[in-house]
Amino acid sequence: MPFGAHETMEVHEILSEKKGMIEHFSMYEQQCQDPNLREMLHRHIQSAIQGYNQLISYTHDYQTAQAKMMPMHAAHNHDIRYGLHNPSPTAPQMGTARMNDQSIAGSVLSAHKNSAKNQMSAALECADPNVRQMLVNGSVMCANEAYEVFNYMNHRGWYQVPTMNDHTAKTMLHHYQPIPQGTMGGMGTDMM
């Protein structure tokens, strides 16, 4: 079963991205100081390897592999720390041989966010339903892992969540109203 030119290029880009993620995450795992971050990186490397190998296996022999979805990091609204609390100024660190844990976590978060977007975009361009599903699963995996990294950073004050006045947020969001039950896409019920 040959692939279309467009999906071949998309899968090539995703495999290249995954290869880079695995290499970078492996380097970060060696440099990080926090054992919790190291363990998280180890798990994320394993899931990236699994996704990478699954795509390669399918593109080599066209046999669908079962994708194992990792559970999303459990978090509740009350677990997130909202508001800005004296964020410290930051600037790029130049000329250092070692990254600190905050920089590592930020780089991992950016990699996951970009990979989630790139894999979903690639999935939308694929005709092969198995490749498409593998890319969607990879996108969801990266989104879940990005959320886990966000939580890690948020609890350390490294990723603060700005807020707006409660009244302003409600006014903006309550502008939208629900569609009454029984409404069928603009068709009245008498037309049925």
TrEMBL record:
This is Spore coat protein. Belongs to the CotF family. It comes from Effusibacillus consociatus. It holds the Pfam family Coat_F. The keyword Ubl conjugation does not apply. The keyword Membrane does not apply. Keywords: Capsid protein, Sporulation, Virion. It is found in: Spore coat. Its main location: other. PANTHER family: SPORE COAT PROTEIN F-LIKE PROTEIN YHCQ.
